[in-house]
Design brief:
With 88 residues, the protein is α+β, with helices and mostly antiparallel strands. Helix content is 32%, strand content 24%. Strands 1, 2, 3, 4 and 5 form a five-stranded mixed β-sheet that branches. The protein starts with a strand and ends in a 6-residue tail after the last helix.
């Protein structure tokens, strides 16, 4: 599926949690939750904790996550900004 990104134009669409879009000064963590390279999805460590607590994509998890559709370039930017190196 394609998306029209205001910054990057017509691109492939991806999904990230709302926490990655809030301009936090520290990385939120980056958990990719799809192994399909054509279905890029990710959420932060807080969302991963909530998902584990809920045990599924419950209504409470979906509300907490606030999934946002972004272009593939924005996804790559979020991944670079929020990935926490191992051991940190």
């Amino acid at each position: 599926m394609m998306i029209s990104c205001g910054e990057h134009g017509e691109r492939i669409s991806t999904v990230v949690c709302k926490h990655m879009l809030q301009g936090q000064p520290v990385p939120a963590g980056f958990v990719e939750n799809s192994s399909d390279p054509n279905d890029l999805q990710a959420w932060c460590y807080l969302c991963e904790d909530k998902f584990q607590l809920e045990g599924d994509m419950t209504d409470a998890f979906i509300e907490f996550n606030g999934m946002a559709i972004v272009c593939i370039v924005c996804y790559a930017d979020a991944k670079a900004r929020h990935t926490i190196p191992a051991g940190k």
